[in-house]
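ok so i was messing around last nite and threw this chain in just to see what happens. nothing serious, just curious
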Amino acid sequence: MGLSIGIVGLPNVGKSTTFNALTKAQNAEAANYPFCTIEPNKALVPVPDLRLNELAKIVNPQRIQHSVVEFVDIAGLVRGASKGEGLGNQFLANIKESDMILHIVRCFEDSNITHVEGKIDPINDIEIIELELLFADITTLSKRIEKLQKETKSQKGISTQLAIAQELLKHLESNNPVRTFAKKDNDDFLILNKELRFLSNKEVIFGANVDENGLETDNNHVNAVRDYATKSGAIAIKLCAKIEEEMVGIDDEERKEFLISLGANESGLEQIIREGFARLGLISYFTAGVKEVRAWTIKKGDNAPRAASVIHKDFEKGFIRAETISYNDFIKYGGEAKAKEAGAVRIEGKDYIVQDGDIMHFRFNV
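result:
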């Protein structure tokens, strides 16, 4: 299981610069003109997790394997994207395939960098993108309603799905995103969302992109984005994409000192990855052996067999038990052998709900 985050925003807000920093490689061309990113760039980015390093100090493995996030750098949207303007249809399809959205918003002034709207107004920028996503959902849902109206004459059980679809359409036509729809727990809505993957239903993190001078204190633009995020049930994280990109290649200690000099314990991009995991209800458990110490991504609330399946489907089919040590106990006792001597190794069955940071060894038979 992985996490896919689509990076969206108007042209020239810092999307490609952010992508470069995230991937630690100059894979996305950052140029001062719209649509410099024609095809979506994809890259797998390790999820920062200091616990892996602590486990490795004890186990001394051949390698460390982090959980990963797939970031997709999607070309800048413009007004009319939902109607195909600016290659909009192609990029809206790319967003549909993402699990959540990182919406980069320009929160700095610079006369040398053109703004496609001719002014710096982050809330206006946000509303342009949000409306385009909403309009795209209206188009998709309207087509489905037409199909349901035909099917309801010949198929039983379609009428309730049609009723929910029509109610949702009214909600969207009132400029309300799918994520605020009151009946999102309804079974018919869940069927619609699974099939249509509504864009305005995706979790959003707003990346308030500032210049170096804006890192220490929030400017008015950042405050406006934070307020907007709070009202819409999202989260805003401040970052300086240019600084993040400059930190590429710096060793961990130097990078840590640099962040402290900026008044930060972790970079904006690290916060974004961590929040992305949290908001989608993802956690990590670990396997720790001499070949590798590795993090595995699962949904919070997954039981032991389901967690085992991310290693291999046979682990779930033939699950017998899971030998489990909490992260704190593994560190406290200095590894599996001493944890076992101390009685800290637990034998868990099929109903065990895996906890974030568990170190697990699965027994199975197929």
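not much to say yet. Confidence is low (pLDDT under 50) at residues 25-38.
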